[in-house]
Amino acid sequence: MLGKTAVEVRADGVAVVTINNPPLNLLSVDGIFYSVDLSSYFVLSCSVHDYSPTDAWNYQLVILSLKESIEGALIRDDVKAIVITGSRGKFSAGFNVTAFGGTQGKMTKMELGFMSIQIVTDTLEAARKPFVAAIEGPAFGGGLEIALACHARISTSSAQLGLTELQYGILPGLGGTQRLPRLVGLSKALEMILMSKRVDGKEARILSLVDTIAPADKFLEVACQWALDIVERRRPWVISLYRTDKLESLAEARAILKSARLEVQGQNPNVVHPLVCIDVIEQGIVSSPRKALRKEAEALQELRQSSTCRSLVHVFFAQRQIFKIPVISKMNLLPRKIVKVAVVGGGLMSSEIATMLVLSNYQVILKETNKKHLIDAISIVEENLQNRVKNGRATQEGLEKSLSLLEGVLDYGKFKDVDLVIEAESESLSLKQEIFSNLEKCCPLHCIFTSNISTFSVKLVGERTKSQHRIAGIHFFCLSPVMPLMEIVHTESTSPQVIVDLIDFGRKMRKTPIMVSDWKGYSVTSMLLTYLHVAVLLAERGVDVYRIDQALKSFGMQVGPFRMIDMVGLQIFVVISKKFVESLPDRSYKPHLIPILQQDNREGERSGKGFYNYDNCGKVSPDPELSEYMKTARDASNVTIDSKLTKLSDSEMVEMILFPALNEACRMISDGVVIRSSDLDVASVLGMGFPAYRGGIIYWSDSFGSKYICSRLENWSKAYGGFFQPCNYIMERSAKNISLTSETRQAKSQL
Description:
The chain is of the alpha/beta class and 751 residues long. Helix 9 packs antiparallel against helix 10.
């Protein structure tokens, strides 16, 4: 036995084969196990550098053990039927991500079809004894594909099922492209596969993905009885690969597939793996599902070696690395519970933060300096919540529940039991210091004090207190769920417990927290602001706003820079960027256009007008009047249209807008503001909307090389000023022809 599965033959003749590769029963070997489908990681017995993804035997070890167990059960005379399940309440979370993005050589035809055809199809599905999958917990990727090949599936209501491979640049490779459409129908299968969508046991039953739901304490017994019922012909013996009753007619199927292709191409023309997946699905419908299994295996082999797959796998690991904080990770500290959060001042900013908090079910105390400001702040929260109801993202009942969590105050009397304070006051250092002094007097000893505005050193803000150990910074990106990043700024005095608490707080708000050092007022926000400022610079010099947005969207950015400013709101954009411009004038650009738009109450999406027009249904459209505002801004600032900029190609425009943001990111690496350069890849994806399939802004830089990036920045600097001047980090690496991704610096504080 290979030892990754266990077999127990019951008295009733059912052999229970248990996948036993804890903690997630992945279809691979001991090492660093990163589930394809779960947001957590587990280090078992070796480091990532010890694990070689070139060893195909390693990938197959668990599934080979499963094959051996199945074959052993099939030849036993005392076995009537077989049930496959997973140990410790988890069926199988599929293959670990180290199996993807490799540089393996070409496989032979026999090797390509080994797992999908020889094991899953010919050994399991074609067996002369029935197989039933007993599913509890995750059944993802290859794990679900094994279950799909069984002749029936029993699950608990809380089980999670999905084929999520496309988010890693590949496609299901154990027959999922063929069996899922035959079980749930083509339209639903396309939705689940192309969107990497997971469903729970209840929905799976409605879709006929599973045959019945059973309680967690009885589902294995139900599965065993179901298997015996198949033997006795009381239940149907269903071979999923050849079912046709759920498939649409050929004409309907072709129309559905054509529509899916158009939608994929419209959403993201830069990636091919969704289209390859659709082609493989179509092959099985119009030709033969068995031939399509071969095509599926060939496609998987190609996609695993693609740049898209490597980039997405890089982002996957980078997101998991972000939670590994040197020293602190080894302390095994448990986060303390945060129940009540106070937000102090700041007008619109504080209202937006309060909205996010109540939507995350936190009790919120919102403090303002006077009654009018407080009424206005609460009105903005109510408006934000009401907009969610209008857009169908919340119910009226949900709105009322969220509002019940909010309480407005004018003093610190209600702060005696708060667990966390987020200060969002105006950019006045003395006022901030006064607030922190008051907090120390009015809040409990365990309460954490944080500042949301990033232009002052956190240490400086709290220097009048004796509570430096519980002071940190929290910066929310764009105050939008579209950008799920939260920056945590720590000083050398911030306690490890506070950091652990804030990381947990961020995750509960569905944000990914990134750690940065309190150093020279830097924050990851500066990378985003630089990106937006360059876009405005180009627009003020004659480049069409909508062409800029379209070029960045075509590159893969989630939204263009001007659409992003509208989403954030011009008022918040001005607040965030004002101090950045004042403190770092040589590295920023002061927009002339924004104040002119604000004079006409064009505040972005909130007001219905900004760079775009927004109707009551949320529809976005270009504004033909914008050109007049541009002309006014140029006249007021003596800026003229630059014919060189207006003639830029889309790719040149993308470089000119993104390279300065990359330059800012490299400054943070050089000064040790972040723990590792890959943290900035995560920050660019989650904070700027940078395309994950390009690996993040630092990883992407390798496609150009440091010499090219440096020369481009130097040329722009000569033409348009020091804003484009390459930092020393880039210049040093350019001189030595060293990649910008190489790690040579350590963070200022290793915590």
